[in-house]
Amino acid sequence: MSKKVSVLVVEDDESMMEYVSVVLERLGFEVTQASTGREVIAALSVKNFDIVMTDHITVDYKGTSVLSAVKMLRPGAEVIIMSGIPTLEEAATSYLKGAKAYLAKPFGLDQLRGAVMRCLEGSA
User: Fold this and answer.
1) In a domain, 69, yes or no
2) Among 33, 37, 80, 85, which is disulfide-ready with 53 (CB 3.0 to 4.6 Å)?
3) Total structural domains within the chain
4) Is residue 59 part of a domain?
5) Cis peptide before 106 (omega within 30 of 0)
């Protein structure tokens, strides 16, 4: 029996959190939710996630801060940054800091699936 891929979804918009979580669960992933940077740190402290999907700006952290925390606490985890106000500079900074994918909101099922599959390519 193989282990389910675990995903931490970091989003302070309830409807976006629900959309992403439901899609990932239907794709067969184990999903944990966090809406603040503090919740992220707490979750990373107790669990080794395969993927962390984070909004660019949460209640108390920027997505790149979450990205830095993930790379420090769980260096094997891949990170996807989501942004409601995407910019080329933000995307470039995210990739330079180690994000595997960057999604501009709103994004569709195919974009979400593609980003997650990119994260899993290296671990297959």
Assistant:
1) yes
2) 80
3) 1
4) yes
5) yes
Residues 87 and 85: their CA atoms lie apart, in Å, by 7
Distances (CA, A) of 73 to 10, 46, 66, 103, 115: 16, 10, 10, 23, 22
Give residue 23's identity as a one-letter amino acid code.
Answer: V
CB burial of residue 20 (10 Å; 0-12, 13-18, 19+): buried
Task: Say what the pLDDT of residue 122 is.
Answer: 64
What is d(CA 62, CA 50) in angstroms, rounded to the nearest whole number?
20
The domain containing residue 46 runs over which residues?
Answer: 6-121
DSSP secondary structure, 4-50, as one string: PPEEEEE-S-HHHHHHHHHHHHHTT-EEEEE-SHHHHHHHHHH---S
Comparing C-alpha atoms, which of 20, 111, 106 is closest to residue 34?
20
pLDDT at site 105:
93
pLDDT of residue 1: 47
- Which one-letter DSSP state was computed for residue 124? -
DSSP 72-92: HH-TT-EEEEEESS--HHHHH
